[in-house]
Amino acid sequence: MKIIAIANQKGGVGKTTTAINLSGALAYRGKKILLLDLDPQANATSGLGEEATSEGCMYLPLIGQARLEDNIIPTRIENLSLVPGDMDLAGVEIELAQMPDYLSRLRQLLVELEKTHDYDYIILDTPPSLGILMTSALAAADEIVIPLQCEWFGLEGLAKIVHIIEHVREAGIGSPAILEGILMTMYDGRTNLSKQVVEEVQNYFPEQLYKAIIPRSIRIGEAPSYGLTIFEHDRGGAGAIAYEQFAEEFLKRRS
Ligand SMILES: Nc1ncnc2c1ncn2[C@@H]1O[C@H](COP(=O)(O)OP(=O)(O)O)[C@@H](O)[C@H]1O
Ligand SMILES: [Mg+2]
User: Fold this and answer.
1) Which of 13, 28, 90, 129 is deepest in the core (most CB within 10 A)?
2) For the sheet containing 33-37, what is the strand order?
3) Above 80 in pLDDT, residue 23?
4) In this prediction, what percent of the chain has a pLDDT beyond 70?
5) What is the pLDDT of residues 221-232, one digit of tens each?
6) What separation in Å is there between the alpha carbon of 18 and the centre of ligand 1?
7) Is the dihedral of CA 12, 123, 45, 223 positive or negative?
8) In this structure, are strands 80-83 and 73-74 parallel, antiparallel, or unpaired?
9) Pairing relationship of beta strands 121-125 and 2-6 according to DSSP bridges
10) Are 7 and 161 in contact (CB under 8 A)?
11) CB burial string 94-111: b at 16+ within 10 A, e below
12) Reduced to 3 states, what is the DSSP secondary structure of residue 109?
């Protein structure tokens, strides 16, 4: 079992879209996946066509008042389970802050879960903030995948998240997570900027940069409004192909 955090403190860069479609692609390939929605906005939950629930989210397990495994629900996609998100998660930041081991609680829950469940990957969709949930996810992860928008501000954000990951590692809070990959999203082949940003990342992070690049696509953008993965919404389309290539590369790096 590997815990993968999809992280970037910037919002709107494609974290949730990547979490949903990586989870879907891996599940379709027969991997057993648990997707954990750690964002109070619960976009991964609604984007999969599931309901947000305050009782069923990570809130109670994180503060020790429910068992994580009781909040895992199956989805219509075989091999893909979900712990839904909920607005209530916003409040967990305050409650957790009062607990001594607050940054390692998520890791502890997942390590405990591993004893009784045989997921291949637990995928964490994280909120766009530098709060406790996000830091807990970085501390819980074995590996971190950063979706990066093909825009200039994306590069500034990248420097920041790399710094945060190092900080969490140095603090020795959880497992020493590695920055495993950077996935370029919302690529627009008509602009030089998109190309330049990819080149820049290629220069600084040649090992991490995924060859698969996710194009800006109306189909990708609208899929969550139907509660569907891109594979269900537009199988064979450019977005589905790109996310399939990404999933393939993701698995290849681990084989
Ligand atoms: N490749 C893409 N092409 C077009 N729209 C996209 C793409 N990826 C994500 N989106 C849309 O952009 C918005 C932000 O994406 P999202 O995955 O929710 O980002 P984050 O989780 O980082 O905030 C959403 O409305 C999503 O549907
Ligand atoms: Mg999101």
Assistant:
1) 13
2) 73-74, 80-83, 33-37, 121-125, 2-6, 143-149, 178-187, 209-215
3) yes
4) 100
5) 999 999 999 999
6) 8
7) positive
8) antiparallel
9) parallel
10) yes
11) eebeeeeebbbbbbebbe
12) helix
Q: Give the ligand whose atoms come closest to the C-alpha of residue 223.
A: 1
Q: Which ligand 1 atom is nearest residue 215's CA?
A: 1
Atom of ligand 1 nearest to the CA of 147: 22
- The ligand 1 atom at the shortest distance from the C-alpha of residue 239 is 1
Residue 47: exposed, middle, or buried by beta-carbon count in 10 A (0-12, 13-18, 19+)? Answer: buried
> Pick from 14, 39, 10, 50: which is nearest to 221 by CA?
14
Q: Which amino acid is at 180?
A: E
Q: Is the CB of 220 under 6 A from ligand 1?
A: yes
Give the per-residue pLDDT at 137. Answer: 95
- Whether the per-residue pLDDT at 176 is higher than 80: the answer is no
Helix (H, G, I), strand (E, B) or coil at 151: coil
Task: Quote the Cα angle for 226-232-234, to 5°.
Answer: 90
The DSSP output letter for 126 is -
pLDDT tens per residue across span 63-104: 999 999 999 999 999 999 999 999 999 999 889 988 888 889
Whether the CB of 224 sits within 6 Å of ligand 1: yes
DSSP 158-227: HHHHHHHHHHHHHHT-SS--EEEEEEEEEE-TT-HHHHHHHHHHHHH-TTTEEEEEEEP-HHHHHGGGGT
pLDDT at position 93 is 87
Residue for token pair 């955090």? 5
Does residue 17's CB lie within 6 angstroms of at least one atom of ligand 1? yes
